[in-house]
Design brief:
about 260 residues, alpha+beta, 4 helices, about 15% helix, globular
Length: about 260
């Protein structure tokens, strides 16, 4: 509704899987919470480290950056050191292959098309589509239906593809561009940062960072901390940096932490 693009899986892990479920352990007379996340844990002299999974294609540490030391003490990731193919073979060995279900690749709590869900739950106000020079080129169906970098569902005349450049809530206008290069930026501010070690690293800090789950990690530097949050500068410009999405910081296989793009 505010024009941000949050990641529901990140929030679900923080509030439900490692929030409510961990609080249930005493009631269930249980010592640990084991999950099916593709991630690994390592105990060190300074605490617990969260590491990337063996299966690089399935690694889910991007969704786990909000975990804290007190939570990691009670968590197990039993499949982190296996490939998904290994796990599927085990189901045959243990005669439980019939329990395998198709992978979930959409929002698990939505039955149907995401935009229809949004239309049902959000207040949508149609408005103008403007190019980056302020020229009217079409009409949008409600700003919450769009996100930075989006190409589909932009109804404008002409043959060139248009991409969402900005959501102007003050004027209820969707700003678009037909030059994809306009979507690339080198800097961002990140807020609500969690450091998995519990301690802020010495800045500036060189890292690898991912600005969305399916986006490759890229070399960057956390240069400083300001009143608005941490300033992150990339070596190479990133496409469609989006407010509300998560950015996660890596040091090789080690996940340092992450936060929300402001």
């Amino acid at each position: 509704q505010e024009g941000k693009t949050p990641n529901p899986c990140v929030i679900c892990n923080k509030e439900i899987k490692f929030g409510l479920l961990l609080k249930k352990l005493p009631e269930l007379n249980s010592d640990y919470l084991a999950t099916g996340h593709y991630a690994c844990l390592k105990k060190s002299n300074t605490g617990y480290e969260l590491l990337k999974a063996k299966d690089k294609a399935k690694d889910q540490t991007y969704f786990l950056y909000n975990l804290k030391q007190k939570e990691l003490q009670k968590v197990l990731f039993p499949i982190g050191n296996y490939l998904k193919e290994d796990i599927r073979n085990m189901t045959k060995e243990f005669n439980i292959a019939n329990l395998i279900v198709p992978e979930s690749k959409n929002l698990c709590f939505i039955n149907g098309i995401t935009k229809n869900y949004l239309k049902k739950h959000l207040t949508l106000k149609p408005g103008l589509i403007l190019d980056k020079n302020g020229i009217k080129i079409g009409k949008h169906k409600g700003l919450p239906l769009y996100t930075i970098g989006q190409r589909k569902e932009i109804k404008v005349s002409g043959f060139l593809p248009y991409y969402v450049l900005r959501l102007d809530f003050k004027n209820n206008a969707l700003i678009v561009t037909n030059d994809e290069r306009d979507l690339y930026e080198k800097e961002l501010i990140v807020e609500k940062v969690n450091w998995i070690s519990g301690k802020e690293p010495r800045l500036p800090k060189r890292i690898k960072a991912k600005i969305r789950y399916l986006h490759p990690s890229s070399s960057a530097e956390i240069t400083s901390k300001t009143k608005k949050g941490y300033l992150v500068k990339f070596i190479y410009a990133q496409r469609a940096i989006t407010s509300g999405q998560s950015i996660v910081f890596y040091d090789k296989k080690n996940i340092l932490g992450g936060g929300t793009i402001k």
